[in-house]
Sequence to fold (492 residues):
Amino acid sequence: MFIKTASRFVGRTAAAGSLLSLGPSMLGSRARSQPKAPTPEPLIQPPERRSANGILDATITAAPGPVQLGDHAFTGLLYNGAYVPPTLRARLGDTLRITFRNNLTSGLDRPGYVGPICTGAGTPSNLHFHGMSVSPEGSSDNVFVHVQPGETFQYQVRIPASGRQGPGLFWYHPHAHGFVNDQILAGMSGALVVDGIDQRFPLLHGLPERFFLIKHVKLADESEIVPINGQINPAVAMRSGEMQFWRIAHIGASDFYKFRVEGVPLYIVATDGHALSQPRKMTEFFIGPGERIDAIAVGPPAGEYPMRTISFQNEAWRPPEPVLQLAVINSSGLSPSAALEDEILRQRVTGSHWIDDVRAAPIARSRTLSYSRTADRKVFMIDGRIIDEARTDQTVKLGDTEEWTVVNTDQQYHSFHIHQTPFLVTEVGGVSWSDDSRRDTFSVPPATDQGPGVLKVVIPFTDPVIVGRFVYHCHAVDHEDKGMMGVIDVVA
Fold:
């Protein structure tokens, strides 16, 4: 997600997601619907599963199950029978001991099926702990483990007590190549929190916590709906002047959204689970699949305020993305004090701020990745080839910091995501980018008639825990499934 003003993008194609970068809202539409509940129901928070005595012990079963989203009922692919599965909550130094069962054994392609467009059940799956700086090997965050239907796998993921992994908002989802998009679309994703961010920003301590978990569902008739916490257009109650801690995560498959909350400023404290040095006030955001925002929201004067998307051009050959209402904020009480904003903006992060080390590190090597696809959009490639999990595409020495340039030759948004280590964004769309936080996923602007879209990032391969083989890819996971992924090996 991008949280930077766009004044420097005037006169050229804007960087992906920069604020106001696309000019006035475009009101074109495409085949996407968003049913609006007649009377918005209160936003429901997802259930939680917390660690105890240093262990988060849980069983996660993937299986077909019924889903009801507004007026739409269908059979999804679910974790523990829930479209919004438990949020896993742990602390630094804990171990995630997750028993994963693949019960995707009942066919979904029977006559009359009107659920998500899926390959169906009877497919392999696994778990990926997105954004976590943990080991990629063995029974840890190893995406090369494919759990076949009817099989069980025991994950043991140790969260470092210190080092590069900090507290923040992450998520878990399947990562068996070729099946990721369909499984996430059908419901298989959930939030993962490493608690303790209130120690980085003490102002957060005791604030009401609200999760906004964004998914999207493609139905057999090609229509699409975008629920939050499994609800269509839910209502969020606030008191004027009340501070709430909003945790916004795009845990859907492939769509990109530009959105705003009318009249409700957000003060960003972290992106992709990594704290900023100080809160930053924002009103509009661009968020791609896999990206997260942690923010303080302040209740506005009494009234009703919509959270809705803003139309923008994604794929050049299609109409602009339509405006969708995602939720409504209902505020009550007296007007907030202007001094509250000053108090929020005065906050400074406590503890070490690793981003300064990344900025200062010498660049050991520069690499360029080229994103492309075939004309029929059936094959997506990095450097002219599709993923081969047996092949190593990049070999990096532990301790090095590298600069990677992602060149997007396609006329649609892609994204860059790398496992195990976050990165620093330094340039977007040919314009220098001064960021105050690290990311693990970032949207890459599309190519135009002026040339390809370009993203530059600085990646620190300095954390000993990440030694091993893992992957980097576009996190529009339909593109990943069609080949847009590579394998990296970090060697000591």
